[in-house]
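Hello,

I think I submitted the UAG job twice by accident. Can you confirm which output corresponds to this input? Input:
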Amino acid sequence: MKVLKDILYKVSLVSTTGDMEVQIQDIVFDSRKVKEGSVFVAVPGTQVDGHDFIDKALALGAKAVIFEKLPSELQKGITYVQVVNSAKAMGIMAGNYFDNPSEKLKVVAVTGTNGKTTTVTLLHQLFMRMGYSTGLLSTVENKINEEVIPATHTTPDSVSIQALLKQMLEAGCTHCFMEASSHAIVQERIAGLKLAGAVFTNISHDHLDYHLTFDEYIKAKKKLFDELPKAAFALVNGDDKRGMVMLQNCKGSHQTFGLKTPAEFKAKIISNTLEGLELDINGTLIWFMMIGAFNAYNLLGVLGTAVLLGEEEEEVLRELSGIKGARGRFDRISIGGVTAIVDYAHTPDALDNVLKTINGVRTGVEQLITIVGCGGNRDKTKRPIMAKIAVQESDKVILTSDNPRFEDPMDILKDMQTGIGVSEIRKSLTIEDRKEAIKTACMLSNKGDIILIAGKGHEDYQEIKGVKHHFDDAEIVTEYLTQLTQS
Ligand SMILES: CC(=O)N[C@H]1[C@@H](OP(=O)(O)OP(=O)(O)OC[C@H]2O[C@@H](n3ccc(=O)[nH]c3=O)[C@H](O)[C@@H]2O)O[C@H](CO)[C@@H](O)[C@@H]1O[C@H](C)C(=O)N[C@@H](C)C(=O)N[C@H](CCC(=O)O)C(=O)O
Ligand SMILES: Nc1ncnc2c1ncn2[C@@H]1O[C@H](COP(=O)(O)OP(=O)(O)OP(=O)(O)O)[C@@H](O)[C@H]1O
Ligand SMILES: N[C@H](CCC[C@H](N)C(=O)O)C(=O)O
Ligand SMILES: [Mg+2]
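Support: Only one job matched these inputs. Its output is below.
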């Protein structure tokens, strides 16, 4: 329990009415979760406006309300606090409520279209191996040391972030590595966090449904760097033309990594096979278990972060060499001579990278069969582009359903089909049922062939009309390939 006035420390206030000494039980932004003694924060959303639920929150026992637009009627005995930006105010309040754990931890936020989960997972594993108690906030899972706390978002809401950081601190953690999605940056989920550093992996086509233009998407990522304190480091991919844009108004120390342009952290790829990567880093040859040139970038981001946090480069490279990365990223399953690769590529750039990696190491005699779909209620413009990349880079493509959410899967598939030219149409099949699509790919495959199952990676569900049904690409392909070897 905390006094309202204390949790409002550092929040930009417009006006206040009522008792600022009122005791607060918790901070809630969903009226349905309000309890006696909560402070309700009214946040304008994409679907509805939290201001419309102030009465509901008060009926359930909220003692104070934080808002941007003054309600038409004020109730007696309630404290009303008007702020400029309620989402931002909530982040700062959550920090104060949980005694600002980020001031006592080294928190590093990683942003970029692709590679966030891979980077933070490698960092978590690396720091654990180097003997630190470490926290992780990622798409796949949140972790306090090795304890797993299921993740619902890539970046949780601000109250959950601060609560998790507090638990990390109580468990003795010294570091936390977290993903900062563009949605989270815009929605101020990371407001109130003191960051030791921020990392930019890359930016390419995604989420235009939410940000509307590519410029707005870039601006969202840049906001993380614009708001970084002077003492923090900003580490960006110098080979991505938007890397320098991130640094334009950044007060933190400017650092870059890259394979092509001069950078503080640089490497040369010596070999790139399905077994791993061999890199030349400052004249030392090191072997990594990560596959694909794009992972050389992720490894450099990790190396740079660790060194900027004060670790010895030599020890970092030694430990990093033995780490596998995140679940569902280039996971290889070999049964009966067929290799299936389960990968979370759900953007055009990621799909292109993964397919080019496979094409770069295959002999060309075998078939490459790609199974791919696109999520519903997400950026529609990436659908034809992903289908086009898939047919260009594969021998056969099966278009199938991903997470249709509230859309008709056939509508999504029709959008994808528009990206396939007449000359390539013979290479593609459309099978809406993802299980059937995987089964068909297995039946079409011969010894030596490669099946790429893209888009869902670690996900163990398929989301249809608000319900998550158990679905695991790796589990299904294993089942069918095993059946085929036994028949
Ligand atoms: C589009 C989006 O990002 N939406 C997020 C946003 O919700 P919203 O703005 O749509 O909220 P809303 O439903 O309009 O409601 C507005 C406000 O009214 C409140 N409300 C609503 C109803 C009610 O009865 N009472 C009430 O008080 C809500 O709690 C909310 O505060 O804020 C919510 C609380 O933090 C998030 O849970 C929600 O994530 C939704 C579920 C989601 O699917 N988000 C995805 C797109 C997302 O965030 N993805 C990124 C990763 C993307 C990537 O890089 O790949 C992530 O970080 O996970
Ligand atoms: N540095 C990179 N550049 C381009 N593609 C990458 C990179 N790292 C990973 N990928 C590809 O992108 C996919 C997603 O990787 P990862 O989960 O690390 O990204 P993410 O940024 O966390 O994604 P999300 O936005 O869903 O959280 C991988 O499965 C791989 O296909
Ligand atoms: N974080 C991403 C995940 C996409 C994964 C893909 N399987 C899909 O459902 O579109 C998003 O919410 O857009
Ligand atoms: Mg992620």
